[in-house]
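agent> call fold_tool(seq_1)
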Amino acid sequence: MAWITAAAALLTALGGAPAGADGADGAADAWQKVGDDARSGVSGLAYEGRTADGAGVHALVVHDNKQSGQRRLSRITHREGSDGVSPVTWDGPEPVDLEAIEAIPGMPGEYLALGSRGIVYRLKAGGATATVVDYSPLPGIGEGDDFESFALVARNGKLAALWADRGAGADRPATLYTAQLSFAPWGQPQFAAVTRRAYLAPYPTGEGTRHISDISVTDSGRILVSSASDAGDDGPFDSAVSEAGRVTVSAAGRVRVTLAAQPTVLGTFPQYKIEAVECLPGSADALLGTDDENRGGYVRTMPFCRT
């Protein structure tokens, strides 16, 4: 009887633990390597489409390189057990420190990429080249803002953008910005009035915590965010994916964000620094990417995007 009671308690504890705690459960082999060094980590990724056999996905990846001539974009083909990586040429004004990229809903082959200081680049990507159509600064940039995240939401024929200053430790929460988005006839991104919300990650919580390192939104409007801690180019790293709240866009284009009083931690990932979260269309899976500095970059999927 004592053995049965102990076993039941263990099962209850496991059932209540966040999914994907790789550093604790030995499932680190689920991560697949896509970069070998600090110049090839995954700072952001955007879904492109399924492979011909439907078993894998293509995604564009941005790298946070800062020197002229260094790679800014790659394409990964992710499937269970293997990942292919190929370079994509950036054609246009060269950005510094790209941190996020997102497909534009309803515009196949077009993307918005974001640099850490708040410049948004509109791209047309095809084959081995991505061409800059136009670019624009984000509105309402705050003092000291450092951006690592960007997401787009299409509802009721309207488009909204979400992005965040990443924050830094207990004394600087992330600031989540939202605004309606449109495009000028010549292609430039244009943002309407901005709203702001403060956000503190439930995990990790150390001094080096970046409260929002990326954002994705499910089909039902759930806001998923990654959070990460970074102690330097050799780590140690730690990160999590949490459900932060919900977003709606009215028929008039009004964007409303409601943040959870207590965000739900969906998974913790010791030893990895997640900087990319992308809900895959038609799936419950999120594609996660890491920028582990000198350790390179890794990707994997987790079932975080249920409706």
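agent> call fold_tool(seq_2)
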Amino acid sequence: MGGMQHTHHDSAAQSLPVAVLSGLVLLAAAVGYLLAVRRARHRNPTVGWSTWRSVSFLGGLALLGAALLPPLGTSAHTDFRGHMTQHMLIGMYAPLALVLAAPVTLLLRTVTPARARRVTGVLHSAPARLLTRPVVALVLSTGTLGALYFTPLYNAAMARPAGHWLMLAHFLASGCLFAHVIAGPDPAPRRPGVRARLVYLGAAVAAHALIAQAMYGGFFVDIHAPVAQVQQGAELMYYGGDFAELLLAAALVSTWRPERRAGAARGRARWAGRSRWAGRARATGAEG
């Protein structure tokens, strides 16, 4: 740490076209989602589509807009506190809102059966099964933060526009993956039980806390920014990360229905008992 971090590229000259392009992409995503909702409701008026899902998706896009557009999108290039705020919004808060909007389920309801089968095939492919393993999602979303902030990787990424955008894309993709694995309503192959997912979420909380504390104390940190900025960024990561993970835990627990599982288990046991009784009855009748 040490010294004012300089913008390694002319962010002022690029801010306007980048902001316009980001805004257009976010607007296109909003329009596309709403058109898909309209089609889903038209194809199946009885089932329809939850308004809260739509609100969640639009809220996630709004969070991305706040992170990418000025003033935060500009200050993140020169101020580490702005970068960390951007990181929290893109990597934790927006992904949760986008994932809770169930975009894959919406897609499956709007495409033809043939295309739905292809989408399902992708979801059950070997790469998808690997990426949706909780440990893989944890490493990609949280484990890579150590490599980013404790090696020259962060400074190298900030040195060029392409590196910065790749870093933000990684935050968004890995954040969406982890939120999907932990609490996503979309279908996922071999998703573990709620208790196991709570364990992985706890590991993410602990890792975020350790990284933030090490950053605040200046241990192993390789960030070209003033010490005060790094420490305040670490505080943002510590408290902002805790709140985001609390929201993720609430989303996960809201899907926990142990009484339904217990009832289903009792129902299966009763069905198995009746099946065995029917088998014995048929056997007795055959012997008679």
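agent> summarizing second result for user.
The first helix runs from residue 11 to 43. Confidence is low (pLDDT under 50) at residues 2-10, 259-267, 269-288.
agent> awaiting next instruction.
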